[in-house]
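Recall the central idea of this unit: under ordinary conditions, the amino acid sequence of a chain determines the structure it adopts. In this exercise we apply that idea directly, starting from the sequence alone.
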Amino acid sequence: MGKLTTHVLDTMNGCPAAGMAVRLYHEGRPVLSLQLNADGRAEAALLQGEAFAPGRYRLVFAVADYFRARGVQLPEPPFLDEVPLDFGIADADAHYHVPLLVSPWSYSTYRGS
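Accordingly, the structure predicted from this sequence is:
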């Protein structure tokens, strides 16, 4: 059975983005909201089993709130507020890992393993 996981690395401070809020949507409908653990990861798979289905998904990462909570002075409005990542799941038997590398000024993502 496939699953969806994520994690976030704070490239400004060189650490996991512990406590960052994340929301998941499937076909535009909210699925779940969570906060990342001390390792910058969700405690469990975001989706797996029957809930893991092909389709279009969006992860939304609360980047500005995270950096403000760390004491970073951001402009108003911040350059990056929430970072949405849109992606598709085609194979319900595969592991889709969606990492985010982020600073207040840039981000990068890829399909991880």
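Strands lie at 3-10, 15-16, 21-26, 29-35, 47-48, 55-62, 82-89, 95-102, 107-109.
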